[in-house]
Amino acid sequence: MFPRQPQPWQSPPSLQEPLQKRNPAGPWVRGVCAPPCPLTSSCLSPCLFPPEEVEDASEPTKRDRSHLESTLKLNEDKPADDFSGALQRLRKIYHTSIKPLEQSYRYNELRQHEITDGEITSKPMVLFLGPWSVGKSSMINYLLGLDDTPYQLYTGAEPTTSEFTVIMHGPKLKTIEGIVMAADSSRSFSPLEKFGQNFLEKLIGIEVPHKLLERVTFVDTPGIIENRKQQERGYPFNDVCQWFIDRADLIFVVFDPTKLDVGLELEMLFRQLKGRESQIRIILNKADSLATQELMRVYGALFWSLAPLINVTEPPRVYVSSFWPQEYHPDTHKDLFLKEEISLLEDLNQVIENRMENKIAFIRQHAIRVRIHALLVDRYLQTYKDKMTFFSDGELVFRDIVEDPDKFFIFKSILAKTNVSKFDLPNREAYKDFFGINPITSFKLLSQQCSYMGGCFLEKIEKAITRELPDLLGSIGLGKKPNVLSCDITGCGETPKNRYRKP
Known about the structure:
Blueprint: E1 18-22, E2 28-33, E3 47-48, H1 51-58, H2 66-71, H3 84-104, H4 108-111, H5 117-120, E4 125-129, H6 136-144, E5 164-169, E6 174-177, H7 178-183, H8 197-200, E7 203-208, E8 217-220, H9 230-233, H10 237-247, E9 250-255, H11 264-272, E10 280-284, H12 292-306, E11 318-320, H13 334-353, H14 355-387, H15 394-403, H16 410-417, H17 428-437, E12 450-451, E13 455-456, H18 457-477, H19 487-490
Parallel strand pairs: 4-8, 4-9, 5-7, 9-10, 10-11
Antiparallel strand pairs: 1-2, 2-3, 5-8, 6-7, 12-13
Helix pairs in contact: 3-14, 3-18, 14-15, 14-16, 14-18
């Protein structure tokens, strides 16, 4: 005989009482609770909840984005400013007045910063740095509104970003491999090829059709993991970061309340940021996860950790908020977080609005450094020629000059004669390495860098620094049309005089 199958227990109507029960995924919902099953413990769940109500209650509320769109002017239909004429003029100034001296004295081997046409015409770059899983990728998704779309960057509690990801504008969603980006001379990333193929495999570009990306480019970086050695990455991580830092218009260093410790890799990163303090914005993300008292303690601990790394008189600007699309947690300072977020967005919009002025100032700063480098090499060479005699050993003479340049007043003579600021002088130790691979005899004196038709290299770069670039910057600031700027107005088309040529 077959054993009798147990029948499900039916509770009488009097026991089917409504009961308020808290759903773990949402607010209190109403369900029907039944007594335990008398025959088997797996016949029915004690409390049955309507699945439709549970699903609706568990959906998180999205934050309003109206302040973001208004601050970044994403709703405006006016076309972007056309700076094509100014960019063409800037490119011409660089190639005719700055690059000849830069190549003649091999400035790129000292600073390893080669300026390409793609970099001159590129959009402002915003760089995201910081420890792993602090919300860098989530912040980019939030700024661009990419959450729950096919375009969103992958995020998670574990270290998720292992590549340098460049998010830029394109007509449709498209992924570009790093090898392709480095081979495309029209982009500003072709110099990255010098870091090797292992790095190019860790470089990826994503084109997204978004209005904000028409005016700016975002760069997401791998999170800093303090227990990881440089050689384990397979490429020079700090050198790559330095390349992006040198070209970034705005640098967001992101932290969260759980990752405030400073290790060797983060300390090295802040050394690389030295001199760029005006472009650094420190962000304490996920601030709505803390109570008020805890937030104050975390804020103080963050400054305590970063104080030895930022050697400036003024403290850096720190933004405290939560940059993701979900609503702020209840019982937190929502108004404060919203004001902090708007302040950060205004900083970002300011960089976008001043992109042409920043580009001209960057090229002028580069020209000043090239000029100082050429003057120093010329002074090294002149000292070498003065100290050389018929019986001198050229190698020993120049080694003495390089080891102790102050003995021969090389740097002091530059300050005395050429109106150069002592704060712009490069490190003396850098020239030991520079002349180690570039023999001094391979250079010419500045007095010999002149031609009848082209003029003198030094006079051309000085004219670019003192006249051409300031005039171009002034035309942008006064609201003039950049494309009407010509040599007839600025006088930049005059043939430079050669003071070394006999009349």
